[in-house]
Amino acid sequence: MIKKVVPILIRRKAQTLEILAFRHPLAGMQLVKGSIEPNETYEHAAIRELFEESGLIARDNPKFIGNLVLKSNHQDWYFYCCEATQVIPDTWIHYCLDDGGLEFKFFWHRIYQEPSEDWHEIFREALFFLRKFVNDDENDSVF
User: Fold this and answer.
1) pLDDT tens digit sequence for 24-63
2) Neighbour tally for 11: CB within 10 Å
3) Tens digits of per-residue pLDDT, 2-29?
4) Residue 143's pLDDT band (boundaries 50, 70, 90)?
5) DSSP-based three-state secondary structure for 13
6) Distance between CA atoms of residues 133 and 38, nearest Å
7) Spatial separation of the C-alpha atoms in residues 88 and 67, rounded to whole Å
8) Which of 32, 43, 102, 142 is an S-S bond match for 133, by CB 3.0 to 4.6 Å?
9) Closest to 51 measured CA to CA, from 24, 84, 80
10) What span, in angstroms and rounded, lies between the C-alpha atoms of 78 and 16?
11) CA-CA distance, 78 to 97, in Å (whole number)?
12) Beta 76-81 vs 3-8: how paired, if at all?
């Protein structure tokens, strides 16, 4: 089974929890996700993937949230809540070197907002999985 890491960032804005997401120019809206390199810890892979795909630098020791075996592709995704070392804007574009170079358009998605059809199916499944770890009614969530 293929294992992937999913580094996530959550913020509270206007009494609503939001998760960092991006629009992939070829594959719709997504969360940051990537492979674990040989001899790499999952935690380091999460930090590295966040940087490669978004340009954001995460603090050491991201918090493990849980893992999800995706029904559609049988990949095993490991979710890590990261904390960025810098202030994160509402939107930005990051040039990612994946697949020969792509522009990823980052934005914040309200965690309880239904994902539109622009979201790739596997990332809709991931969003539903993450909802069980947050409490949008109080200031203290698992994140």
Assistant:
1) 999 999 999 999 999 999 999 999 999 999 999 999 999 9
2) 14
3) 999 999 999 998 888 999 999 999 999 9
4) low
5) strand
6) 29
7) 26
8) 142
9) 84
10) 24
11) 23
12) parallel
